[in-house]
Design goal:
The chain is about 40% helix and about 15% strand. By secondary structure, the protein is an alpha/beta fold. A hairpin with a 2-residue loop joins β6 and β7 (about 250-255). This is Sulfotransferase family protein. One of its GO terms (molecular function) is N-acetylglucosamine 6-O-sulfotransferase activity. Pfam families: Sulfotransfer_3.
Length: about 350
């Protein structure tokens, strides 16, 4: 009998550091940076979008080995099925099932293909840990219920004003040359999504033993990158001493084979890790006030200030396993500055 596949699932809201964490972890021995595996079927198989290595996914030799074990002829149907099963309107029922101690996302015939995906990835990469940055809490709950999966949840959180600002940037899905843009929700919708996904993540997993759940804030990660990534690596179950850091805040990245995610997943070579704080200057007052009003419960929970220019965020007491280191109108985004590491 094969041992279970350990999956480090990055959960929470988009634009909170998942691409950075995934890419850096993929440099450690025994770790495979898979990217957003819930998109494999649509963006990878149906649309043949680029793998992290730069090749179209169907032309990537590694994914070619994995795909031979999957029902690729049913990729479009599996993708459509996932979209239907993971709709936001299903969250109340999902949480009720979780409270009753039953499977949060009901079983489905496609689950066999999903379980085969993770097993094939582990087998063909030799990875002890597969990093899945899909973020969506319902999909994480689905993956955790699959046979042969050992799930560990890394909850990434970032100031909601920063994430709302980041979502408004115009960005190609796979880089500047891509005519298809990443999603650009209005700041109000981005704020509500931030609140919902982070709240659901806490309710699903925060009461797990320390070995099963870890919360990390983007602000802490960018304040002390090496120390924070070493702790994440240890939580994932890999040797934290073998990372790609060439200095306390600089990593040397080699190509990964990640699926989907922020275009920054394609960056290689020496990469400095610094906080992207352009939102502090360029997010309009109206947008700041709207996002703040909509996310008050989360601001309290995760220790973020209410007022612009308030004291620097500090990890709140009693936040479990968190790492403590150091209108409907769009946000007004001015000409981008040369900022720090911008994350998806």
């Amino acid at each position: 009998m094969n041992p279970p596949v350990r999956v480090l699932y990055l959960a929470g809201s988009g634009r909170s550091g998942s691409t950075l964490v995934t890419t850096v972890l993929g440099q450690y021995d025994g770790v495979f940076a898979a990217g957003e595996l819930r998109y494999l079927w649509q963006r990878g198989e149906v649309e043949n979008r680029p793998c992290g290595c730069g090749r179209p996914l169907r032309d990537c030799p590694l994914w070619g080995e994995v795909r031979r074990e999957l029902p690729t002829d049913r990729a479009a149907a599996i993708a459509a099925g996932l979209r239907g099963r993971l709709r936001m309107r299903g969250l109340p029922a999902l949480l009720r099932r979780h409270r009753r101690g039953v499977r949060p996302v009901p079983a489905h015939p496609d689950d066999a293909a999903l379980a085969d995906l993770y097993a094939a990835v582990a087998r063909h990469t030799g990875a002890r840990v597969v990093v899945d940055s899909s973020k969506l809490p319902p999909y994480g709950a689905l993956v955790g219920a699959l046979p042969g999966i050992e799930l560990r949840v890394l909850h990434l959180v970032r100031d909601p004003r920063a994430t709302a600002f980041s979502w408004r940037r115009r960005r190609g899905l796979d880089g500047d040359a891509d005519p298809e843009l990443m999603s650009r929700p209005p700041v109000g919708k981005a704020a509500l999504l931030w609140l919902v996904w982070n709240t659901v993540t806490v309710r699903l997993w925060a009461d797990r033993a320390p070995a099963g759940y870890l919360r990390v804030r983007y602000e802490d990660l960018t304040a002390e990158p090496e120390a924070t990534l070493r702790r994440i690596a240890a939580f994932a179950g890999v040797d934290p001493a073998g990372g790609p850091f060439t200095g306390p805040a600089t990593v040397r990245l080699t190509p990964t084979h990640s699926v989907a995610g922020n275009p920054s997943r394609h960056r290689t070579g020496p990469v400095p890790i610094t906080a992207d704080v352009q939102w502090r200057r360029d997010l309009s007052r109206r947008s700041y006030a709207l996002v703040t009003a909509l996310t008050v419960p989360g601001l309290r929970r995760f220790g973020y200030p209410w007022r612009r220019g308030g004291p620097a965020a500090a990890s709140p007491a009693g936040s479990g396993s968190s790492v403590a280191v150091g209108s409907g109108r769009s946000a007004q985004v001015r000409q981008p500055a040369s900022a720090g590491h911008e994350e998806g």
